[in-house]
Amino acid sequence: SQQGEEDPQALSIQEGENATMNCSYKTSINNLQWYRQNSGRGLVHLILIRSNEREKHSGRLRVTLDTSKKSSSLLITASQAADTASYFCATENRAGGTSYGKLTFGQGTILTVHP
Amino acid sequence: GAVVSQHPSWVICKSGTSVKIECRSLDFQATTMFWYRQFPKQSLMLMATSNEGSKATYEQGVEKDKFLINHASLTLSTLTVTSAHPEDSSFYICSARDRTDYYSNQPQHFGDGTRLSIL
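ok -> structure tokens follow
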């Protein structure tokens, strides 16, 4: 399997419900980041959690990180139709040399929030 | 906040044409820039890492003669897709960071991407 696997691949919920997405990775990381991408658009950075952190909040977002299991989850509470997008986790590996932390992206979760 | 400008946002051209995509950091010095490619309904795949003044480091499977990367200044990196063919049609995204971003665990700054369509 690939670094940065996400599940589910697709998630469909009603407005107001919570959405949980999971991400697993394989190597040692410097940090793990979550991004949102609306169809055909660029990436929007949501949250970064460092390898020595276990949980982080930002508005309606809650991210957890379990380095022993090499996994992370993104929880979006009280979802809104505007949250409809693809969500990607990305791990920044512990880099050496001059490649300052290149990112490895997960396969993504397509979230659809029905109004 | 830090802004990365990517140009053009969309380009359509004939097979065999070479296409240049620019990635500029507008308010910071981009020590390192990254180029990603994203096929429809897929994730982003890193193509190469470029450090200012050095040759780019390409990921396995990426043809360096096909995808020419230049990072001649601290604010500009270019990706040139040479002799483009329909299979090169994709969404290309750059990102940039300065040295302090890495050590302070700050995220990279992404451009808005370039949609390349080769006819």
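Residues 4 and 25 of chain B are 5 Å apart (CA to CA).
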